Amino acid sequence: MVSTKRYSTQYVVKLAAIDIGSNAARLQISTVLHNDDTISFKRVEYVRFPLRLGHDVFNFGALTPESEARTTKLMQVYKLLMELHEVEECMACATSAMREATNGHEVARRIEARTGVKIHIIDGQKEADLINNVVVQALDDRQFLHIDVGGGSTELNLYVNRQKLNSKSFKIGSVRLLEGKEIKGGWRKIEDWVQDNVDRTREVIAVGTGGNISKLFNLASKTSDASTTRTEIERIRNYIAGFSQEDRINKLRLNADRADVIVPAADIYISVMKWAGTNDIIVPDLGLKDGIIQLVYAQLVKQKRV
Q1: DSSP for the chain, written as a single string
Q2: Is the pTM of this model over 0.90?
Q3: What's the CATH architecture for 139-286?
Q4: Under 8 Å between Cβ of 53 and 119
Q5: I need a labelling partner for 70 at 20 to 30 A (CA). Which of 109, 245, 270, 303 fits?
């Protein structure tokens, strides 16, 4: 955690989360809102930068000096931005790429020494738990299969009556697929887990989180403000796949680091939904960064600092 100095006289609690993934690193700054006994968080700043750490790790097994230097610079930038926003507390979490890198912990220690930003390298279960803590708020008593696709891993979580029945992290992600480094038998493991855990005798609805499903959802026709169909996701996936990488950037206006991974990411969502026997997916605007914000707030409450 990083504490930053407060300069203004008006006391507004701002918290920050840094999510260092296999494709990009994100900073989210949110204010804490109090409405009677209800606490909520309002996003006031969001920055995403494509570090693409997964390229190093999935090909070479370690982070290169160049990637370490870029990550260090980015943490310095994020820290300055947090200082300008007068952030009370921040937590930085790294996921698949950094936890699989042979030098991940060593790099994290050096970055902390140079920037003051402590990077928590979390495992797949912790990552899933943080995301689930916010996603569950968007669910009801039906059966939901939560699919979170990152650059290096996919987390699946099954809910019934807003209770998590089972979860599993798989080493298949958009960057890993792009690099051709998926784990042997990985697809079959996902299919087997879905077949073993989803109750096909009752309705199941998919819940998609992650940057790629959010972009696919923005391009798709909607069945409601927060839902669409697998059929529509497939249509958008095939439409994008029909363009070259250059045209995806120039004609479809996708970011370069989104243009190459969005199709393999779509393949994961579509495959899981097919195996689960569902054509319906909701896409809440939530993710790991929101779970981190919630955790930081809970820790401040425990310390009686808010």
Answers
A1: -B------SS---EEEEEEE-SS-EEEEEEEEEEETTEEEEEEEEEEEE---HHHHHHHHSS--HHHHHHHHHHHHHHHHHHHHHT-SEEEEEE-HHHHHSTTHHHHHHHHHHHHS--EEE--HHHHHHHHHHHHGGG--SSEEEEEEE-SS-EEEEEEETTEEEEEEEES--HHHHHTT-PPTTHHHHHHHHHHHHS-TTS-EEEEEESHHHHHHHHHSPPSBTTEEEHHHHHHHHHHHHTS-HHHHHHTS---HHHHTTHHHHHHHHHHHHHHHT--EEE--S--HHHHHHHHHHHHHHHTT--
A2: no
A3: 2-Layer Sandwich (3.30)
A4: no
A5: 245
Q: Establish whether domains 14-122 and 139-286 are of one fold.
A: yes
Reply yes or no on domain 14-122 having CATH 3.30.420.40: yes
Q: So where are the chain's domains?
A: 14-122, 139-286
Write the pLDDT tens digit of every residue in 177-221: 999 988 789 999 999 999 999 999 999 999 999 999 999 999 998
